[in-house]
Design a protein that fits this description.
This protein is an alpha/beta fold and about 290 residues long. It contains six helices and 15 strands. The strands form two sheets. Strands 1-2-5-7-9-11-13-15 form an eight-stranded mixed beta sheet, with no helix packed on it. Strands 3-4-6-8-10-12-14 form a seven-stranded mixed beta sheet. Helix 2 packs antiparallel against helix 6. The longest helix is centred in the N-terminal third of the chain and has 13 residues. The chain is globular and about 50 Å long. The relative contact order is 0.13.
Length: about 290
């Protein structure tokens, strides 16, 4: 009998460090100015017309002192030898030029209040880099968990030409009596002929305000499959933007959501076909359950 093992079962999860990046400091100052200048979105705006944002008072979470625990499966020696990198975002920005090259490339700090919040205040996140012609046979898993009032994250995934990776991220929190806020931006770069299967799962308790923005940048003949699950949260907003910047690029966007009672889930997808012969399929479904006592 052959038992298949994935990366998680073979290698123990390890917690990523949370040192601050000197390289990111100027960018964060710029983002802070943008954050302060941008108003809270209104439901009359097209991007927010399905989001009940008026009850959120950001001043209740100030000063923003985010803290998040991030655990990741340790890379095998073989992957390290091939040049695969999986580390915390701060170490990556201070150590690897490739991380600096992609940092903030698709982050809309001048248009989105919560993207600017994440960019200005993030103190944690991960960086995943897959070199050219490297195909990972096993999935990469990263887990995010926070128990303080705020969490602010910035993540980057880069797949070089003709590479392939399956990536899984899980978001959870430990419930407190007070409201909790998570603001996260993940930038995904699929270079020529690369393929990324991206699995996102969030499972929040009833007092969480979540604003997660995933931005996929697809070059020529690149392929990205987004598979997402959203569960719980007082206000749980997942926005996935897909930028088709290369001819022949394609994306599938599959999602499911489930809320209870007055939980509000906003699952938004946007596609920007900036090149010819690009294709995208979207299928998102879910429901809200009311329990009568």
């Amino acid at each position: 009998m052959v038992i298949k093992q994935n990366l998680v079962t073979k290698n123990a999860m390890q917690e990523l460090s949370q040192a601050q990046s000197a390289f990111a400091s100027e960018k964060k100052k710029e983002a802070l100015d943008k954050f302060k200048a941008l108003p809270i979105p209104q439901e009359k705006e097209e991007d927010w017309r399905y989001t009940q944002i008026e009850k959120l008072k950001l001043e209740n979470f100030e000063p923003f002192e985010p803290k998040t625990a991030i655990s990741a499966a340790e890379l095998s020696d073989d992957l390290v030898e091939k040049g695969v990198i999986l580390t915390d975002i701060n170490t990556a920005l201070d150590k690897y030029e490739i991380a600096q090259k992609y940092f903030f490339r698709n982050t809309k700090i001048d248009k989105d209040k919560f993207a600017a919040l994440s960019a200005a205040h993030f103190n944690h996140g991960f960086f995943l880099y897959v070199p050219k012609n490297v195909e990972l046979k096993e999935p990469i898993l990263v887990n995010f968990s926070f128990e303080n009032e705020t969490s602010a994250l910035h993540n980057i995934i880069v797949a070089e030409p003709n590479s392939k990776v399956d990536f899984v991220e899980e978001y959870t929190n430990k419930e407190t009596d007070k409201g909790q806020l998570n603001a996260c931006v993940t930038e995904v770069f699929a270079n020529n002929d690369s393929k990324i299967n991206f699995y996102h799962l969030n499972n929040w308790t009833k007092n969480v305000y979540n604003f997660t923005n995933i931005v996929g940048n697809l070059d020529r003949n690149a392929s990205v499959n987004f598979v997402s699950g959203c569960f719980g949260g007082k206000l749980n907003r997942l926005r996935i933007d897909t930028l088709f910047n290369g001819q022949g690029s394609q994306c599938n966007n599959l999602g499911i959501f489930l809320g209870r009672g007055r939980e509000h889930i906003d699952f938004t997808t946007n596609m920007y076909h900036n090149s010819v012969n690009t294709t995208n399929e979207v299928l998102v479904d879910g429901k809200n359950i009311f329990i009568l006592s």
